[in-house]
Every structure is written in structure tokens, then in C-alpha cells.
Amino acid sequence: MKAILIDDELPNLTNLQILLNTYCPQIEVCALAQSAEQGIIALKTYSPDLIFLDIQMPEQDGFAFLRSLNSYDFEVIFVTAYDQYAIQAVRFSAVDYLLKPINIKELIEAVNRAFKQNQLKSQHKQIEYLMDWFKVQSQKEEQRIALSTVEETRFAKVSEIIRCESSNNYTTFFLSDNSKLLVSKPIYEYDELLSNYGFIRCHQSHLVNKAYIKSWLKEYGDFLLLNDGTQIPISRGKKQMVKDTLRVF
């Protein structure tokens, strides 16, 4: 895969280039760009398969760079020193990202995912959705979240998600249309994303949309009974938090 690296700080660019050359032989770095303007020139010159894009840059940030383009015929891996709003955006859109300083294992995993996505040509829609995310935030429309599985990327309304259940580093989403989606992300990432949308982390392995909670069962331990009849355990450590959230006294 041909790649270009865009970051306003040259040491970050050279460090990333060294890491890619050392640990990701499937990547050919074609150009280094220290601004969005230089990035556009490199994009037109090399037509890359993959862009490593810094989010926070002077004059024009990474999101503004993408908004200036007419099409997205490439994969994107964002690189950032961590901005909560920015990370929330890319997580909702299921676009990959790396935190500075770059972890080698995470870099290799992100590149492997980008390689697979490039073969499937599915992430282009996710980048378009990332741009739409900002419009949704300003227009107060119902939020959607991109959920990437092996077969597809599903853009689901947050209100359609009944619950999430973890299995190691995977999360299964149970939706109101009775469909299930297995996503290769740990549940704690979605706990952070969905906490502002009425979701409760009632157990280490369970995240529940409180709109679907019917009652609290206490006869044989503590469980949340959902509208579809599912019983979700409440862990001892999270019991008081769940009580406070549901206003149970």
C-alpha cells in the first residue's frame, strides 16, 4: 500500500516513517507533508492507498483537510496526542486512530486493518460518515454509530441499540430489529462513547440502554430485566451506580 504521512511536526513524521519501514513492510511511504496544503499536493501526486493524518495542525486540522476533498479513495489512520472530542468522532465513525507516542503493536494492528479495509473498499463510506458526524452534532439529529464487522459496516441509530455484551476484545451489539453485530473493539470504548446516550455499564461484560429496561429483579441476585425478556446481571461493584442512575431507592 502506498502511504503519505501528514503532520505539522517533522520529528513525528520521521519517527512514524522509521516505524513503518521497520515494522510494516507492506507499506511504501511516498511522501511526508507538514501541512494540510502539502498533504493535498501529495495526495494528487501519489494517489495513496493510505493516509496517516494528524488531527491537530495549525491553519487547517485533519478534519478540515478531509472536508476539503471531493472523494475519499483511500484509507485513513488518524494520529493524535489525544483530544477527547476528536477521539469520540473517529470512534463513532469506526475510523482507525493511533495515540501519540505511537505504540508499535497498535501501529501494526492498525496497518493490518487498513490493508484488509483497502481490499474490501469499505472504509470510504466511514470517512464520509465521519464528516457527517459533525453535522449531526450541530443539527441535533439522532446520533448514529458505525459498527464494523467482518461482513459490513452498519450505521445504526443509538436508540436502536438494546445492549452490548463483551467477549475478550470483542463486543456484540444487540439491536431492536433482532440483529446481532460482532465488532472487534472492547466494550470499554463503547462505554465511554455511549454513556451520554443513556447507557449503563451494569457489569464488566454488559452495557445496557436504559430505555429498554423493564424492571430490577432481586429474588435470585440482582438483574436488569429488559423489554425482550433478557436478564442482565448487576455486579456488586456497580450496584450503587446503577441505583443512582435509575433513581432506585
UniProtKB/TrEMBL annotation:
<dbReference type="Pfam" id="PF04397">
    <property type="entry name" value="LytTR"/>
</dbReference>
<keyword id="KW-0597">Phosphoprotein</keyword>
<dbReference type="InterPro" id="IPR007492">
    <property type="entry name" value="LytTR_DNA-bd_dom"/>
</dbReference>
<feature type="modified residue" description="4-aspartylphosphate">
    <location>
        <position position="54"/>
    </location>
</feature>
<dbReference type="InterPro" id="IPR046947">
    <property type="entry name" value="LytR-like"/>
</dbReference>
<dbReference type="Pfam" id="PF00072">
    <property type="entry name" value="Response_reg"/>
</dbReference>
<keyword id="KW-0238">DNA-binding</keyword>
<protein>
    <submittedName>
        <fullName>LytTR family DNA-binding domain-containing protein</fullName>
    </submittedName>
</protein>
<dbReference type="GO" id="GO:0003677">
    <property type="term" value="F:DNA binding"/>
</dbReference>
<feature type="domain" description="HTH LytTR-type">
    <location>
        <begin position="145"/>
        <end position="248"/>
    </location>
</feature>
<dbReference type="InterPro" id="IPR011006">
    <property type="entry name" value="CheY-like_superfamily"/>
</dbReference>
<dbReference type="InterPro" id="IPR001789">
    <property type="entry name" value="Sig_transdc_resp-reg_receiver"/>
</dbReference>
<feature type="domain" description="Response regulatory">
    <location>
        <begin position="2"/>
        <end position="115"/>
    </location>
</feature>
